[in-house]
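Hi all, posting the design record for the shared folder.

TITLE: backbone redesign
STEP: 1 of 1
STRUCTURE INPUT:
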């Protein structure tokens, strides 16, 4: 690799004969096709049944699979990047010169073979959510050839020609890449489609996904909006456009004054506020506005529904707001009636479950229904909207509830598990689905099985691991008191930096 800068009757029935011959040909062709596919996966990396993780041991980086087996021996000074942990493409950085900033890169598959060797650089495309949690754009890599950047998919297929000066993710938005060419910016998606040609001096996302559209700045220095289908929503005639929109309404600044306009660019609301914080979800309902640093609600006709008196207002659902006052949160309706008292540190609304979670200073949560009735209380451990349940810590036990607040046996919820954590005489062990003891009650602390079948167990202050049969595969000898999450894959425990998502072995 070249160097780059960092970063089938006795009598023959002829119809049947031909049919058999044809079938044989099809089988032969299928064999070759399948062979080709697997050959391709061996050479370039492909989707497999395995899951891969970066691994750290003896100050070196490698790769393990979901069984804790070593795939790439830890031998690299720099962390190996795995853009998609279901695909065996591992990006390695090596021969780093920290003085000059030069380094070399290569991509390996699970056979430790180098792939994508035609490019001088191969890199994952990092992205971050609003909490600065890291992820990598899916099934797309950026590659450099002759000093220019393009993209390929995980099979090595070219998506974007290497003709761009830079390619970066638009922060917080999946499947949206900012491309730069000759000093101008555009947008492409992860499959190589050009959404916006590189004609702009600045591009930012309008909403929370790549379909909401983009705020663009042209050579005039003015801003407009273009949607995902390349339709111009607002002409470039505004000094500023906020990331506040809804119901075909947009918040813009023109002639030094903020206002709400419709998609035709006509003023909808221009007075009675200092700033617009949000447009309400119900069409024509209004906006959350700010005056003198306080939040209130106003209709599009300018009628104040809630005076600006709160430190913050967040619309949970139509006509319902989570409000902040004097450092505490409560819930009010559109008529400013208090529905939940201002007694909580935080309140959040789970739309899929249609429940409110109100947490106090001691981290205890009241779980409320849509009528603001407290249905359960405890320390919230998890909300799983995909499977429709939440877990509360109650009386030193983890209890499982569906979104109708009905208690559920965890064996029902965790139906794919082979072992279930159980407690007796203040010690932990494991039982099977029939309640038979598989692991005796000898541990001071322990976790449920993770999705790979391993569970962490603690004894005498140290952590180890058991497999899905209850067999000890790592004796408890790790002190993990300073770790936010204790989790094992084989003998490897989850690293301290959760954002890096790696496993460690000492």
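Okay, here is what came back for every position:
SEQUENCE:
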């Amino acid at each position: 690799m070249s160097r780059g800068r960092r970063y089938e009757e006795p009598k023959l029935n002829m119809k049947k004969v031909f049919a058999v011959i044809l079938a044989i040909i099809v089988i032969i062709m299928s064999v070759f096709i399948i062979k080709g596919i697997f050959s391709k996966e061996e050479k370039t990396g492909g989707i497999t049944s395995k899951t891969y993780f970066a691994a750290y041991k003896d100050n070196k980086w490698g790769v393990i699979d979901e069984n804790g087996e070593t795939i790439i021996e830890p031998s690299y000074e720099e962390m190996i990047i795995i853009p998609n942990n279901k695909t065996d493409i591992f990006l390695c950085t090596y021969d780093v010169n920290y003085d000059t900033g030069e380094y070399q890169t290569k991509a390996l598959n699970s056979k430790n073979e180098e792939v994508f060797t035609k490019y001088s650089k191969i890199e994952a495309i990092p992205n971050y959510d609003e909490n600065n949690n890291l992820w990598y754009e899916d099934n797309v890599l950026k590659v450099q050839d002759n000093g220019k950047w393009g993209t390929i998919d995980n099979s090595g297929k070219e998506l974007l020609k290497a003709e761009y000066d830079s390619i970066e993710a638009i922060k917080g938005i999946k499947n949206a890449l900012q491309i730069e060419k000759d000093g101008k910016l555009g947008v492409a998606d992860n499959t190589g489609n050009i959404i916006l040609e590189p004609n702009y001096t600045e591009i930012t996302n309008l909403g929370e996904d790549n379909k909401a559209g983009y705020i663009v700045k042209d050579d005039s220095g003015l801003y407009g909006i273009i949607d995902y289908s390349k339709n111009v929503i607002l002409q470039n005639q505004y000094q500023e456009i906020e990331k506040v929109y809804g119901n075909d309404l947009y918040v813009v600044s023109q002639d030094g004054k903020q206002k709400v306009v419709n998609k035709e660019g006509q003023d909808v609301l221009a007075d009675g506020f200092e700033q617009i914080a949000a447009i309400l979800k119900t069409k024509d309902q209004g906006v959350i506005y700010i005056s003198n640093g306080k939040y209130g609600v106003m209709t599009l006709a300018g009628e104040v529904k809630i005076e600006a008196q709160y430190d913050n207002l967040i619309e949970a659902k139509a006509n319902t707001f989570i409000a902040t006052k004097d450092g505490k949160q409560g819930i009010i309706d559109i008529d400013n009636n208090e529905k939940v008292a201002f007694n909580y540190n935080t309140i959040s609304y789970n739309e899929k479950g249609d429940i409110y979670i109100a947490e106090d200073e001691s981290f205890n949560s009241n779980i409320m229904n849509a009528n603001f009735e407290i249905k359960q209380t405890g320390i919230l451990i998890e909300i799983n909207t995909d499977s429709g349940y939440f877990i509360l810590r109650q009386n030193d036990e983890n209890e499982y509830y569906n979104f109708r607040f009905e208690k559920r046996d965890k064996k029902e919820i965790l139906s794919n598990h082979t072992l279930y954590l159980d407690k007796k005489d203040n010690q932990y062990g494991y039982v099977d689905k029939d309640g038979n003891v598989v692991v005796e009650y000898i541990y001071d602390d322990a976790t449920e099985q993770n999705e790979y079948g391993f569970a962490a167990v603690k004894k005498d202050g140290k952590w180890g691991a058991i497999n899905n049969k209850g067999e000890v595969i790592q004796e408890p000898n790790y002190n993990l008191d300073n770790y936010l999450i204790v989790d094992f894959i084989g003998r490897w425990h989850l690293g301290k930096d959760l954002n890096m998502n790696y496993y460690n072995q000492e």
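COMMENT: Residues 14-44 form the longest helix (31 residues).
Let me know if anyone wants the other runs.
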